[in-house]
Amino acid sequence: HYKQLAMTSGAYNYSYIFKYIIIGDMGVGKSCLLHQFTEKKFLADCPHTIGVEFGTRIIEVSGQKIKLQIWDTAGQERFRAVTRSYYRGAAGALMVYDISRRSTYNHLSSWLTDARNLTLPNTVIFMIGNKSDLDNQRDVTFEEAKKFAEDNGLVFLECSAKTGENVEDAFLETARKIYENILSGVLDLKLTDGVTSRPTVGGSDGVGGGGGAGSRQDSGRSSDCAC
């Protein structure tokens, strides 16, 4: 049901905009996941995000073209006050840990608390165990993480930003669940900023200077070193 689509220059060719945020500890690979999804490339020397970065891609779900606006947030504690402001109105939250670093898994409860407190009750939260290519260095079992996800009502996948394994599925399954919530009436478009319906040609898409499909932009804060 999913396709990547090029954006038609000068006109909107999508029915919805879905706002995503990516959250999790520093160094778990949030920026690398975003780059793999939007650019189909792995950044071996992915710099640590300073503040927030931004990327977009247009997909298709059940015949509807949807533009994903993805906000990649910094994982350092000193940026939490800044990044918390980006939770508001998010339709989807990708919560990432590193399967080879247990500390990043142990901190998921804190990230989940932020996500639950700062987003709407019907925001889709998708839990990602990144760096599945480092299975020989695994510090968190799949079964343990799956149980945590089930206990907290989350969708869960292990992914690899390096190989691309399951990266598409994580972003696209989140979109599918958001779309299901729209169809079922669980998500009221009048009450959420995270979904915009059918923008008009020549109008604003709600984000200043948002790039086309596959673009990745800095939101005005500098990047300095990591992922």
UniProtKB/TrEMBL annotation:
Provide the protein name: Ras-related protein Rab-14
Concerning its family, UniProt says:
Belongs to the small GTPase superfamily. Rab family.
* PANTHER family assigned: DRAB11-RELATED
Any Pfam family from its record, for instance, is: Ras
Q: Which organism is it from?
A: Macrostomum lignano
- Subcellular location, record wording: Cytoplasmic vesicle; Early endosome membrane; Golgi apparatus, trans-Golgi network membrane; Recycling endosome
| InterPro entries from the UniProt entry | P-loop_NTPase, Rab14, Rab_GTPases_membrane_traffic, Small_GTP-bd, Small_GTPase
Q: Which NCBIfam families match?
A: small_GTP
Q: Which domain of life is it from?
A: Eukaryota
Q: Which GO terms describe its cellular component?
A: cytosol; early endosome membrane; phagocytic vesicle; recycling endosome; trans-Golgi network
Q: Which reactions fall under this protein's catalytic activity?
A: GTP + H2O = GDP + phosphate + H(+)
Q: Major place of localization?
A: cytoplasm
Q: Which cofactor does it need?
A: Mg(2+)
> Low complexity composition bias: which ranges?
215-227
Region: Disordered; residue ranges are 199-227
Q: Cite the record's Gly residues compositional bias ranges.
A: 203-214
Q: Which GO terms describe its biological process?
A: defense response to bacterium; endocytic recycling; Golgi to endosome transport; phagosome maturation; protein transport
